[in-house]
């Protein structure tokens, strides 16, 4: 075992092990997502979901217009727009989930830093 691993194991107490065991059963995706709407960066998270909703509504409209179109040219246009709106929606959802993962990792690194500083 390397020195860092040994030092880390010595610093972590039984309380920390219990804390880690409790957090292995996370609060869930939705609780984490809703908590991201508070604090730093919350405006970007809210705007992301506004964009997701706008792109979703646009997607539904394009799908409806696709089936109502009278010419093949209009069908191709609405199908292309639907694909683009769906791709934009997926990109925003991926970005949001990456931000959630980043927040979780930073939180754990801060806890580890505090535990090492106390030890």
Short note summarizing the structure:
By secondary structure, the chain is mainly α.
Describe this structure in words.
By secondary structure, this protein is mainly alpha-helical. It is built from 5 helices and no strands. It has helices spanning 3-11, 14-23, 29-35, 42-68, 72-118. α4 (42-68) packs antiparallel against α5 (72-118). The longest helix has 47 residues, at 72-118. It is rod-shaped. It starts with a helix and ends with a helix.
Question: What distinguishing features does this structure have?
Answer:
about 120 residues, mainly alpha, about 85% helix
Describe the protein's topology.
Layout: H1 3-11, H2 14-23, H3 29-35, H4 42-68, H5 72-118
The secondary-structure class comes to: mainly alpha
Count all strands and give the number. 0
Percent of residues in β-strands: under 5%
Terminal Cα span: 19 Å
Mean pLDDT over the residues = 84
**Helix fraction bin:** over 70%
Query: Quick one: overall form?
Result: rod-shaped
Biggest beta sheet attributes? none
* Estimated radius of gyration: 23 Å
